[in-house]
Amino acid sequence: MDEIANISLIGSGNVANQLAFTFQQEGVNVSHIYSRNNITGSALASKFNAVFLENIESLPKQLCIVCVPDDVVTSVINSIDKNIPVAYTSGSVELASFNSRKNTGVFYPLQTFSLERIIDFFEVPIFIESDNEYFTSTLFNLAWKISKDVNQANSEERKKMHIAAVMVNNFTNHIIHLAQQYSSENNIDFKHLQPLLKETVLKLEKTLAISAQTGPARRSDLAVIESHLQKLTGKTREVYKVISESIIETYAKNDKL
Fold first, then answer.
1. Which of 29, 193, 201, 245 has the fewest Cβ atoms within 10 angstroms?
2. DSSP-derived secondary structure for 78-121
3. Are the beta carbons of 97 and 90 closer than 8 angstroms?
4. pLDDT for position 254
5. How many other β-carbons are positioned within 10 Å of the β-carbon of residue 47?
């Protein structure tokens, strides 16, 4: 496969939007876009002067990157002409699912994306896996155009990274949602907590989380924890209790070492 000048994208969500923007910025033309959602798909194609395809069978025979939710990756790829080289952006779908295809691979950017933010993709780690060395090299060359952190990872390694990513991003985001909800219900301006949130993340650039931990559970201050639990209800109370217990248990073991 020669130097890639044109690619196709499948999908019109957060990942597809970010990749379309980034590829175009770095001189890789997104020439065709297919999406099951005609409205968002045609809008994305129009935004980047790409051809919007209403039929997946109309994809040209050039590299196609599939940016769809994990639960439909397999069905989407199985509907693509086997002569078309395909890479998908999923963190959890195993490459072995596509043994009957040639030139199939993974192009997994380890980051969270949203339509509201354009991020610096050169800071995003990309993990590559493929069914052959030649296609692996092709995907590496493409990834180096948009990122300075490109790595090879097999399906098992990628799945483990995805688990860690869910905890770092999805779980953290949900806890912040609970804090925002609690703040709103108790007339607390959440902007006063944002410097704390920022410092919590920045601190991890210099130290491990286990060393950075503070708070009542770290001190095993059961009286404070109980007083907090009395003011919480529902799932928020459960989350506070489970995480506090985990912190207490972690440091009870660690402090004995």
1. 201
2. HTS-TTS-EEE--SSS-GGGGTTSSSEEEEEE-S--BTTB---G
3. no
4. 61
5. 14
Indicate whether 182 and 203 sit together in one domain: yes
Domain at 101, CATH number: 3.40.50.720
Same domain, 145 and 31: yes
The C-alpha atoms of residue 185 and residue 153 are separated, in whole angstroms, by 44
Does the structure show a pLDDT above 60 at 1? no
Looking at the fold, whether 198 and 230 belong to one and the same domain comes out as yes
Let me know if residue 1 belongs to a domain: no
Same domain, 149 and 165: no
- Whole-prediction pTM: 0.89
The parent domain of residue 237 ranges over 159-254
Q: Are residues 83 and 139 in the same domain?
A: yes
Residue 147 structure tokens: 């990122």
Specify whether 109 is located in the same domain as 211. Answer: no
Buried b (16+ CB within 10 A) or exposed e, 130-151: bbeeebbebbbebbebbbeebb
pLDDT of residue 256: 53
**What angle in degrees, to the nearest 10, is found between the helix axes of 234-254 and 172-185?**
130
Domain end position, chosen among 134, 153, 172: 153
Residue 244: name the closest of 223, 227, 220 by CA. 220
Q: Using one digit for the tens of pLDDT, what is the confidence trace for 179-192? A: 999 999 999 999 99
